[in-house]
Design a protein that fits this description.
Largest sheet: 4 strands, mixed
Order of helices and strands: HHHHEHHEHHHHHEHEHEHHHHHEHEEHHH
GO molecular function: lyase activity
Protein name: 2-methylcitrate dehydratase PrpD
Number of helices: 22
Organism: Asanoa hainanensis
Number of domains: 2
Radius of gyration: 21 Å
Distance between the termini: 41 Å
InterPro entries: MmgE/PrpD_sf (IPR036148), MmgE/PrpD_sf_1 (IPR042183), MmgE/PrpD_sf_2 (IPR042188), MmgE_PrpD (IPR005656), MmgE_PrpD_C (IPR045337), MmgE_PrpD_N (IPR045336)
CATH class of the largest domain: Mainly Alpha
Strand order of the largest sheet: 6-5-7-8
Structural class: alpha+beta
Shape: globular
Family: Belongs to the PrpD family.
Helix content: 40-55%
Number of strands: 8
Strand content: 5-15%
CATH architecture of the largest domain: Orthogonal Bundle
Length: about 450
């Protein structure tokens, strides 16, 4: 049985000053990175149009929770596929190699909404750390059924914990919030985003709202059930429930720090190919232009072979299109797959040069490694080859702060003023700084995109 009372007690007792400095520093980087992904998603016309339609028919929610705002922000947070996921799972043989959980984009909409009310950065970071530690533990303490996608399953629990702490609910009501939030999982399939279904992003938006609403329902007296939650997570939606992973070492061992940060705005399976391509062309002249890009990779990446894509999400699940865009732009961030950029003829021409093959030895290295080799052939007949065993951004090969900051600025461009972007970078990369930079972000963003 899941001990939700113990989880709630941890959430109420944990303080930023009690966590190891390196964990607090990572939480600041993760918050900055997730915020950048969210702001970059707001640049997409589909997201703004969706937000406008929700505002036109705003339904009432418990305790006046802003349904349209939370759903729009949550949808935006995963639109780029640039958000973090958990890279650790105690069952190391687990395949396919999907992240354990994505709690951060589910909880951030709640915190950004609260920031508009004046809550300071330090308290918001504290709640972010605690809520997402709980969400991540539900990810590592369970195993998704084959073919399921993690969005909307564990993330609503993080959103519920964040909402309960923001509203000063009792520990008992926070436990109920966890039970209610985890009892409405969105058991949707991984095949949807792999084929370009942008509804995938809505799962995060709904998860953000469902989690917040669960805390509101708990405060209004609705009862939860740890038994129902345990049954859902130990056979129905996920399997292999480990209560020791959920509660063992709470406040001492921080699973949140096992997250990766993505350097590129596309599916994680594609990242090793982009890293290898980057190494292959580093410092090399173009030698008359590209003639071919040969990619030898593991099975799951090799299956992402679409050259003609139906949506920007489909492009984010395409090795040829992601490689072509990176080759043209030297980056893969928010702007890369905006409608006019995705439609560039050069993208299609370069994508057609990609030759994608599964290397059985690389598939056999899963899930601990995701090896990939890229050979770049130039029109003058020369070639360069590079290999990687894993993508950058994992805990064993973390992104440096300057790259996290640069990624944030690229994604937030045209959404934040440069002064606000600089302030939030400085504030979140220095977790001791405090201040109200997230309030400044909320002031600039919420009124414009989701009043």
């Amino acid at each position: 049985m899941i001990d939700t009372a113990r989880i709630a007690a941890f959430a109420h007792d944990a303080r930023l000053d009690d966590a190891p400095p390196e964990v607090v520093a990572f939480a600041g980087r993760l918050l900055l990175d997730t915020l950048g992904a969210l702001l970059g998603g707001l640049r997409y016309p589909q997201v703004t149009a969706f937000g406008d339609s929700l505002r036109a028919a705003e339904p009432a929610g418990p305790r006046d929770l802003p349904f349209g705002r939370l759903v729009t922000l949550g949808t935006a947070a995963t639109w780029l596929d640039a958000d973090s996921g958990g890279s650790f799972h105690p069952q190391g043989h687990r395949l396919p190699p999907v992240p354990t959980a994505h709690p951060a984009p589910h909880s951030l909409p709640v915190l950004l909404h609260a920031a508009a009310g004046g809550l300071d950065d330090r308290r918001l970071l504290e709640i972010f750390l605690v809520a997402n530690e709980v969400g991540m533990r539900f990810g590592v303490g369970t195993t998704l059924r084959p073919g399921l996608h993690p969005h909307g399953i564990h993330g609503p629990i993080a959103s519920a914990v964040a909402t309960a702490l923001l509203h000063d609910l009792s520990s008992a009501l926070t436990a109920t919030s966890v039970e209610l939030a985890g009892s409405v999982p969105l058991a949707a399939t991984l095949a949807v985003p792999m084929h370009g279904g942008t509804v995938r992003n809505l799962w995060t938006g709904l998860g953000a709202y469902y989690g917040a609403a669960a805390a509101g329902r708990a405060a209004d007296g609705v009862a939860g059930s740890a038994t129902v939650l345990s049954q859902l997570l130990d056979g129905l939606v996920t399997t292999g429930l480990s209560t020791s992973e959920l509660t063992g070492g709470l406040g001492e061992r921080w699973r949140l720090a096992d997250s990766y940060l993505k350097p590129y705005a596309c599916a994680r399976w594609i990242h090793p190919a982009l890293d290898a391509f980057r190494l292959a062309v580093a410092g090399a002249p173009e030698r008359g232009g590209l003639a071919a890009i040969e990619v030898d990779t593991f099975a799951f990446a090799a299956s992402l072979s679409a050259v003609r894509v139906a949506s920007d999400l489909h492009a984010r699940f395409s090795v040829p299109v992601s490689l072509a865009t990176y080759a043209l732009d030297g980056e893969l961030a928010a702007a890369g797959f905006l409608p006019d950029r995705l439609a560039r003829s050069e993208v299609g021409e370069l994508a057609a040069l990609v030759r994608l093959r599964e290397e059985p030895a690389y598939t056999a290295a899963l899930p601990h490694e995701r090896p990939t080799t890229v050979t770049v052939r130039w029109r003058d007949g020369s070639a360069e080859t590079a290999s990687v065993r894993n993508a950058r951004g994992n805990p064993s090969d973390p992104l440096p702060d300057d790259e996290v900051a640069a990624k944030f600025r690229r994604n937030a461009q045209d959404v934040l003023t440069p002064a606000t972007a600089d302030a939030v970078v400085a504030g979140l990369l220095d977790s001791a700084a405090g201040g109200h930079t997230l309030q400044a972000v909320a002031t600039e963003v919420l009124g414009r995109f989701c009043p």
